[in-house]
TrEMBL record:
Residues 293-476 form the Helicase C-terminal domain. The keyword Transferase does not apply. It is an enzyme of class 3 (hydrolase). It catalyses: ATP + H2O = ADP + phosphate + H(+). One of its GO terms (molecular function) is RNA binding. Keywords: ATP-binding, Helicase, Hydrolase, mRNA processing, mRNA splicing, Nucleotide-binding, Nucleus. The chain holds residues 276 to 1039 of 1087 of the full protein. It is found in: Nucleus. It comes from the Eukaryota. Transmembrane segments: none annotated. Residues 63-86 are annotated as: Disordered. Its EC number is 3.6.4.13. This is Pre-mRNA-splicing factor ATP-dependent RNA helicase PRP16.
Length: 764
């Protein structure tokens, strides 16, 4: 076995070639038989529809059905779990065994840290226990935060089912731009960002009696900030209970942060996992993961369990799914004469990543009919926050997409980086929930020791903090540098954020919140966007700006399927407003609205209906906030130059100056950046000399994405303390912009030649 090391390897074929050994042979025979058995189909459909909900239950129905291989799934079986099933499932969870002790500890202490393996019932059970024990007095409620939106929603759904109530009533959830709670809500799941925003409205969080900070080990930015805020809050709200739950990683840190809070461990129940490292470094982790998954599939019985592949993000996940389909089709065509992937009926592939709509994400919980194997391809969302039952094999590509921030150039990038050892262990652990498992790592054992950090660097140390700093300032935290961070962010990042907020007019010269800053903080969007929105209201185009801001808050609206790229690009270019990608988005929305928000119209024009739909919802939410802040909603009609100017007001900090074909220099740092190939600006004969951009992306090179052409005088108007305009004289015969001669304003030789104005950073 050339590609794998480790104690026992099920692979006997050296180069990944899938030769037919005895096991595979029998599997393929079974497969052929299944293919013939078309009567299964009608039942399948009924089953899938009926059980989508029921499968949210952790009853391992998958397993149950698989074991009873001879019994067909009954089409009349709706899959809805009975009360009894639910109660049994709840009682079988490790958390249940120590329920009364947990409650006692929480009663006795203001802060408790609860540690437990993934799947032990922390997220779904703790809130219910607190509710049952009546720990909240005076009609207060229980809040439970999640770092991820998907988890907040799916867990709320699950708990509502367990408590036998309608979602949104006694049990609800709240995520940015979507509130599914009511006055009856007793248990509320929410993202950590939502709790932070609630703290803005009500500093002492009066309505909560208990707050569970779930998945604290993930150390998301907002979770860290909440923990810091609780340091102050605990003294002011003696009656509030704080429960911090964490996977087994590094939990003592939380306990010592809160002066030695009790650590409560839920005894684990895990099965042994065999870890198999790659023998050689792999050059293409997508390819290797696909081959590994296929090897597993071909060499093991379907009834042994499902496969979970960890990938970095949406793109890789889709590439993995595509490659997997393609390779499987090749193999099956040789063996079984299958010509299309759709004809393969013993595998179902489930991609899962956060940009995927919630209803589709929920499909991963669905129970498959017998004789079918699930291959889930997930981001690290499946590491701890989602538990998919029935996984026996894990394939770990060894990387994840990590947000990294460079405060010097203001570059916030999502970069594919090696995971930490803690991540790797979590990933492997997913194979051992229901029985002994196998974890295949697409990296060598040496790499695991040499290249991997023990822990992932907390988000607060690798992200832009402008939003957070604005929020803390609004919460009255004057000295940000002294805020009790559990791990402090780099000083340079904090200073860069303070500087940016100052630039935007949110902070005055002394670092105090201005009226503008206070208004900006009311919007759950980036400071640059809230600034542009506020400026647009006083310039008569907030109607347009609120659309642009909403469109910028959703995943890409343009759809570009790999097999119809040219056609999609043509469709996109029809929406282009040549001087601005922002206005292009405004144009798309406007046309969609004129076409009565039609889904059909979207698919005809290669637009993602769901993204637009979401933009429409966000738009409504933002307008509500605007109304509550008495910010006018006014339209500039067809006059769009003023919209560009307002965009400039929020983004003059992110400006660039042309330096060559498609190339720009970042105004402040001089760094070379490239116009993103999808930009509408390519439609303008000459590229504009000055632009502002929404984001700086780092892929193979630095790209500026979502760009608008601006007048340098606007940049001066909004960024006057940073920029200055010089008139310049182009040196004859030496046209390179780098050799320009600066002349003072009174030497007016270049008058009437606006191209020869040069905007630069002061004192540079
Ligand atoms: O939080 P922790 O990882 O400790 O466990 P949990 O999320 O409370 O999960 C406990 C059980 O509930 C597991 O068996 C999950 O499979 C199940 N569950 C589910 O079926 N559907 C969900 N949306 C969430 C959990
Ligand atoms: Mg959990």
């Amino acid at each position: 076995d050339a590609s794998q090391s480790g104690a026992v390897s099920p692979f006997k074929n050296p180069d990944g070639e899938l030769s037919m050994n005895a096991k595979k042979g029998s599997r393929l025979v079974a497969l052929r038989r299944l293919q013939k058995d078309k009567t299964n189909r009608a039942k399948e459909t009924a089953d899938i529809v009926g059980t989508a909900l029921g499968n949210l239950l952790g009853l391992k129905e998958n397993e149950k059905n698989r074991q009873s291989a001879s019994t067909h799934v009954d089409a009349t079986d709706t899959g809805m779990p009975s009360r009894g099933d639910i109660d049994r499932a709840r009682k079988a969870l490790p958390a249940y065994q120590i329920k009364s002790q947990i409650i006692q500890t929480i009663r006795d202490h203001q802060v408790t840290v609860v540690i437990g393996e993934t799947g032990s019932g922390k997220t779904t059970q703790l809130a219910q226990y607190l509710n049952e024990a009546g720990l909240c007095k005076d009609n207060r409620i229980i809040g439970c935060t999640q770092p991820r939106r998907v988890a907040a929603m799916s867990v709320a759904k699950r708990v509502a089912l367990e408590m036998d109530v309608k979602l949104g009533q006694e049990v609800g959830y709240s995520i940015r731009f979507e509130d599914c709670t009511s006055s009856k809500t007793r248990v509320k799941f929410m993202t950590d960002g939502i709790l932070l925003r609630e703290a803005l409205m009500d500093e002492t969080l009066e309505k909560y009696g208990c707050i569970i900070i779930d998945e604290a080990h993930e150390r998301s930015l907002n979770t860290d900030v909440i923990l810091g805020l609780f340091k102050r809050l605990l003294a002011r709200r003696r009656d509030i209970k704080l429960i911090i739950t964490s996977a087994t990683i590094n939990a003592t840190k939380f306990s010592s942060f809160f002066g030695g809070a009790p650590l409560f461990t839920i005894p684990g129940r895990t099965f042994p996992i065999e870890i198999v490292y790659s023998k050689h470094p792999v050059s293409d982790y997508v390819e290797s993961s696909v081959m590994q998954a296929i090897r597993i599939h071909m060499s093991t019985g379907i009834d042994t369990g499902d496969i979970l592949i960890f990938m970095t993000g949406q793109e890789d996940i889709e590439a993995t799914a595509d490659t997997l389909r393609q390779k499987l089709t090749e193999i099956y065509s040789k063996r079984l004469g299958v010509s299309r992937y759709e004809e393969i009926d013993d595998i179902e592939i489930f991609p899962i990543y956060s940009a995927l709509p919630a209803d589709i994400q929920n499909h991963i919980f669905k129970r498959l009919e017998q004789g079918k194997r699930k291959i889930v391809i997930a981001t690290n969302i499946a590491e701890t926050s989602l538990t998919i039952d029935g996984i026996k094999y894990v394939v770990d590509c060894g990387y994840s997409k990590l947000k990294l921030y460079n405060p010097k150039i203001g570059l916030d990038s999502l970069t594919i980086t090696p995971i930490s050892k803690a991540n790797a262990d979590q990933r492997s652990g997913r194979a051992g929930r229901t029985g002994p498992g196998m974890a295949y790592r697409m990296y060598t054992e040496e790499a695991a020791y040499d290249d991997m950090y023990n822990q992932t660097i907390p988000e607060i140390q690798r992200t832009n903090l402008s939003n957070t700093v604005l929020l803390l300032k609004s919460l009255g935290v004057d000295d940000i540098l002294r805020f009790p961070f559990i791990d402090p962010p780099p000083l340079q990042t904090l200073l860069a954020s303070l500087y940016e907020l100052h630039f935007l007019g949110a902070l005055d010269n002394w670092g105090n919140l201005t009226r503008m800053g206070s208004k900006m903080s009311k919007f759950p969007i980036r400071p640059s966007l809230s600034k542009a929105l506020l400026i647009s209201a006083t310039n008569g185009c907030s109607e347009e700006m609120v659309t642009i801001v909403s469109m910028l808050s959703v995943p890409m609206v343009f759809y570009r399927p790999s097999e119809r790229q040219k056609e999609a690009d043509r469709a996109r270019s029809r929406f282009f407003v040549p001087e601005s990608d922002h206005l292009t988005l405004l144009n798309v929305y406007g046309q969609w609205r004129s076409n009565r928000y039609s889904a059909k119209w979207c698919s005809r024009h290669f637009l993602q209906y769901r993204s637009l739909q979401r933009a429409r919802e966000i738009r409504e939410q933002l307008i509500k906030i605007m109304q509550s802040q008495e910010i006018e909603l006014v339209s500039s009609g067809t006059e769009w130059d003023i919209v560009r100017k307002c965009i400039c007001s929020g983004f003059s900090y992110q400006a660039a100056k042309i330096s060559g074909l498609g190339k720009y220099n970042h105004l402040q740092t001089g760094m070379e950046v490239q116009l993103h190939p999808t930009s509408a600006l390519y439609g303008m004969g000459d590229l504009p000399p000055y632009v502002v951009y929404h984001e700086l992306l780092m892929t193979t090179r630095e790209y500026i994405n979502c760009v608008t052409s601006v007048d340098p005088f606007w940049l001066m108007e909004f960024g006057g303390f940073l920029y200055e305009i010089k008139r310049i004289k182009d040196m004859e015969g030496n046209g390179g912009r780098g050799f320009m001669d600066t002349v003072s304003d009174d030497q007016d030789e270049t008058e009437n030649q606006p191209d020869e104005l040069d905007l630069r950073v002061k004192n540079c």
